[in-house]
Amino acid sequence: MLLSSSISRPYLNTFGVEKSIELMANAGFDAIDFPFGGKYCSPETDSDAFTEYFLKIREMIQEKGLHFNQAHAPAPSSHIDETRDQELFENLVRSIRNASYLGVPTIVVHPVQHLTYDNDENPERLFEMNIRFYNRLKPYCEEYGIKIALENMWQYIGKKISHSTCSRPDEFNRYLDALDSNHFVGCLDIGHAFLVGESPSDFIRNMGNKRLRALHIHDVDGFLDSHTLPFQGAVNWERTVKALADIEYQGDLTYEANGFLTRTPFELYSSALRHMVETGRYLIQKFQDYSN
Q1: What is the pLDDT of residue 79?
Q2: 164: closest CA among 180, 178, 150, 153?
Q3: Over the stretch 207-240, which tens digit does the pLDDT of each residue have?
Q4: Whole-angstrom distance, CA of residue 177 vs CA of residue 94
Q5: What is the CATH number of domain 3-291?
Q6: Is the dihedral of CA 68, 69, 73, 74 positive or negative?
């Protein structure tokens, strides 16, 4: 199991891609999750210059002994306005293409979830919309040799965080089983599961290792999507890691603990990254202990 983390966007904006990679490599990560968004999936990337830029970044990370194990497409994936919806889709396609230049094998693409989930009819409508949505992206998976990972979501209903698309294990499984498993897999966001009242360990066992191929590792307090470091919130990590071992999970441990880094001063960024690595290695050792 490799230890990976997404690049926190405030630090990406401050340090740039190259410096961020250097800091994460020095901290001891094995791989990096590239966060697409903004200029990295905009129309300006439709140029030879940007293609060369992404290939240069891929060469740079390989020289440091790392690779991009996954990426995150821009979010959200849908909008109620059709014109804006088409723009979002085109940016998603660009992110898939640009991720392939970085050598990314899997990119997380949020499901369509712009409908209110507390309407009895909307979950089924969203299912139909999402199957069409992901199948529209399938040709780009084939063209660029990359898999798409669906992610379990949440939404506010009133002022309370509640269920949304793929937030229940049975529904998430239904989505994945309806799509081509050669091109679509599951990414379980541990914090998102906990926020809507789902046990992460039960969620993991329900999905199994054929569906569950990627993770977003972060902690929450149960009230806010704070994306902090494990053991800083309310998630039971002992049970979560044991469940991963029980299903013989084959993927990486990938942080999406951007909230932890966002609240860390720039001067402490390097030490914060080292603490993330120490915590991640602890979790991986627990996983290995349970696996033996």
Answers
A1: 86
A2: 153
A3: 999 999 999 999 999 999 999 999 999 999 999 9
A4: 26
A5: 3.20.20.150
A6: negative
Q: Return the amino acid letter for 179.
A: L
Residue spans of the chain under pLDDT 50: none
Is the separation of the CB atoms in 3 and 257 below 8 Å?
no
Query: In angstroms, what CA-CA distances link 185 with 53, 59, 152, 209, 211?
Result: 28, 27, 12, 10, 6
Q: What's phi and psi for 50, nearest 5 deg?
A: -75, -35
CA-CA distance, 10 to 28, in Å (whole number)? 20
**Per-residue model confidence as pLDDT tens digits over 71-103:** 999 999 988 888 999 999 999 999 999 999 999
| pLDDT in the model for residue 118 | 82
Q: Which of 225, 285, 287, 222 is nearest to 256 (CA)?
A: 225
Say how far apart CA 69 and CA 46 lie, in whole Å.
23
Q: In whole angstroms, what is the distance from residue 6 CA to residue 72 CA?
A: 8
The token duo for 264 is 């860390």
DSSP of the chain: --EEEEPPHHHHHHHHHHHHHHHHHHHT-SEEEEE--GGGGSGGGSSHHHHHHHHHHHHHHHHTT-EEEEEE--S----SSHHHHHHHHHHHHHHHHHHHHTT-SEEE-PPP--S-TTSTTHHHHHHHHHHHHHHHHHHHHHHHT-EEEEE--EEEETTEEEE-TT-SHHHHHHHHHHS-TTTEEEEEEHHHHHHTT--HHHHHHHHHHHHEEEEEB-B--SSS---B-TTSSS--HHHHHHHHHHTT--S-EEE--HHHHHTS-GGGHHHHHHHHHHHHHHHHHHHHHHH-
Distance separating alpha carbons of residues 71 and 249, to the nearest angstrom: 19
Sequence ranges of the domains in the chain: 3-291
Which residue shows structure tokens 């905009």? Answer: 42
